[in-house]
Each structure stands twice: as C-alpha cells, then as structure tokens.
Write a structure and sequence with these properties.
Length: 108
C-alpha cells in the first residue's frame, strides 16, 4: 500500500510539473518581432501531411495555416516541396521529388 501511495504522489508531482511548464512558456510574444520563418517537415513524416501540402487542393492551405498558427504566426505565405537543398547535407541531392522535405513559410 505504501508503494502505491509513493508512486501516486510521484505521478502527481510529474503531472503538476508538466502542467506548470505549459503555463510558464511564452504565448508567442517572443516571436512578435519575427516577420517570417520557414519550417521543414520530412516528406515521410508518417501522418500524410506531405500528401496534403503538395497537392493543389484546399487541404494544403488549411494544413499550412494551421501549422503556422500552432507555431505563433498568423498564416502561411508559401508551402510545398523545398526547392533547394536547405539541409546543408554533403550527401547527393535527392532525385525523387517526393522524398524532398516540405517547406512551409509562415508570416505574421
């Protein structure tokens, strides 16, 4: 019974610390001076985001805007396959366009 009480109090402590870390984090005010930023998402992220962001439908605009808003920006300026090697890798560039990362440029 004592082990269970100790484990429960440890769990509640970790839960409290986790909740407090979300409260202490800034609410995006630190990015207020940033005009735009580009985020790279792996083409094989496992969630199917790349399929939506590289298509011509409205799905891409919705997902890109949601991504930007989740990162403290107002909307997506551009999105799609990264057009150049932005990774700085010394490996040969990818010939398969579907394997290139997805770039989302957000603006305030």
């Amino acid at each position: 019974m004592m082990r269970r009480a100790i484990a429960l109090s440890g769990f509640l402590f970790m839960l409290t610390v986790t909740a407090a870390s979300f409260i202490v984090l800034p609410n995006g005010a630190s990015q207020a001076n940033i005009v735009n930023a580009t985020f790279l998402i792996p083409a094989s992220d496992g969630y199917g985001v790349a399929d939506c962001l590289t298509g011509a439908g409205e799905c891409g605009r919705i997902v890109a805007n949601a991504w930007c808003e989740a990162h403290g920006f107002s909307r997506a300026e551009t999105f799609g396959h990264a057009v150049e090697d932005v990774t700085g890798s010394t490996e040969p560039t990818l010939s398969n366009a579907s394997a290139r990362p997805i770039a989302i440029t957000c603006e305030n």
